[in-house]
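Q: Could you fold this chain for me?
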Amino acid sequence: MAAADTAIQPELTDPVAASPEPRAPEKKGAAKADKKDKKGKGGKQGKGDDEDEQLDGGAPSIAAYPRAARSVALVKGWGGLAGFVLGGYLSLPTNTLAGAGLRALVAGIVCYVVAWGGAVFVWRRLVMIELRSREHQLAATVQAARTRRELPAPGAERSAARTAS
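A: Sure. Below is the predicted structure, expressed as structure tokens.
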């Protein structure tokens, strides 16, 4: 048997040739361009290309916002747990234990999804409100800096009057 096993398996004499060559990691944009080229859309500049770029970089993401991500995860967990407990408690007297468990799982999943949707809905509004307030603060700071630049310095008027006389 041992002779038959060695005859079937090819022997690798050169270990370097057997290992794959290491490749440099590709950028995400290059992978998208390769996919578009394979589909035949690489050379076209259409509406879809602009939408992909806007979705990736332009819109604020709740997942990228640390407080929102933690809060959404916390709400999802508590929503699922509350749905599971409430569904299990309400279905215990009406059915068998297996039926109650199944109903509890379904209720937990439904409450998990509803809580997730509600938390994302609320945090989208909160993130947009916070971004607007930061924009207003930045605009006020820029406006204050412009007014400071427009006012002449008190020493500049005196030095100009001395050179004129």
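A (continued): The two ends are 114 Å apart (CA to CA).
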